[in-house]
Amino acid sequence: MQEMNLIISQGPHIRSGWTGQRIMMSVFLALLPAAFFGIDVFGWHAAFILISAILSSWACDIAIQHLIRIHKKKQGIFYRVAYLNWSSLLTGLLIGMIMPPGVPVLLPAIGSLFAISLGKYAFGKGNNIFNPALIARVFLAFAFPALMAAWIIPDAITQATPLTVLKESGMDALVTQFGSESVMYSSMALGNIGGCIGETSAMALLAGAIFLLAFGIISLSIPASFIGTVGIISLFAGRDVLFDLLAGGLFLGAFFMATDYVTSPLTFTGKIIFGIGCGALTMLFRMLSGYPEGVAFSILLMNAAVPLIDRYTRPFPLGGKMTGRCKTG
After folding, report:
1. pTM of the full predicted structure?
2. Which end of the chain is more exposed for a tag (fewer CB within 10 A), N or C?
3. How far apart are CA 48 and CA 105, in angstroms?
4. What is the pLDDT of residues 229-264, one digit of tens each?
5. Residue 186 region by backbone torsions, left for phi larger than 0, else alpha for psi between -120 and 50, else beta
6. How far apart are CA 137 and CA 90, in angstroms?
7. How does pLDDT run across 66-82, given as a tens digit for each residue?
8. What 3-state class would DSSP assign to 328?
C-alpha cells in the first residue's frame, strides 16, 4: 500500500486576496476625497505639502530597505527591496493631511523622515508600537511650535482653528465668528474652516470611512467606541456635543489612524477598550489641558497600552483553566 505523506504548512491556512499592500492601497484611496478637498480649499501650497510628505516618506523607505539589504547580504541572507510600498505612501499622505496648510514644504519632509526611520523601522518592520504619522506630528509640534501653528481659513486669511477659538475665547465668540450656530455646524461638516489639510471636512472623511467599512477593511468597533465616548463625555460635561464631534481631527483619527492594524488591539473587547480610552483622553486634553486638540496624543498613549490590552483580553481555549490573569492552562 502506497504511503501518503501529509504535509501541514505554517499558518495562516485561510487566505484571502486582501494582502497587506492591497489594504494599504485601499486606505490610501479612501483618504483621497479629504485630501483633494483640502487642496481645493487651501490652494496649491497644500498640494505641495502632500506631495512633499509622500515623496519623502517613499524615498526614505527605499533608502532604509537598501541599507537593510546591504546588511543582510553581509549576513548571508537575501533581502528583496520593495520599491512600491503602499505602507510608506500611506504614512506620507497621512502626515501631509495632518499638517497645517501654512507650513513650509520642507517641514512635512522632515516629519516623513522621522516617521519612517524612527517611527517605523526602529522597532523592526511591522513591529512599531506607535502610529508613525502621529509620531511625526507630535515631533514637529514640539520641535517647530510656531511653524506648526500656521493656520489659515479658506480665503487665505490667518485664523485660529475652532478648537483654539473655543479654548481661548469661548463658544459665544466662536458662534459670533461664524454668524450663527447652523452656519458653524455646516461649515465644520463641509470643511470650510481653519485646520489641518485633511481633517476639516467631516463629510469627505466619512465617505472614505464608508468605503473601508463596506469592504471590511476596518470595523466599527474602534471608531464607534472612540466617537461615542467623545460624545457621551461632551454631553455630561455640558459642552456642545455636535461641535466636539465635528471639530479637530476626530474623524480622521478614529477611522484612519486608531484602526491601524499594527498599533491597535487584536480582540473585539480590546478594540472597544482602546476606542473608549482614546475618546476619554481626547476629551481630557480638550477640557483640562492647555492644548486645544487631543486626538493625536490620545491615540499615541493608547498605542502604548495595546500590549497590555491584548494580554488581558486574549481568549483562552474552550475548557482551559485560567492560571493567573488571562493565562491558559
Report:
1. 0.86
2. N
3. 7
4. 999 999 999 888 998 898 888 999 999 999 998 899
5. alpha
6. 15
7. 888 877 777 666 667 67
8. strand
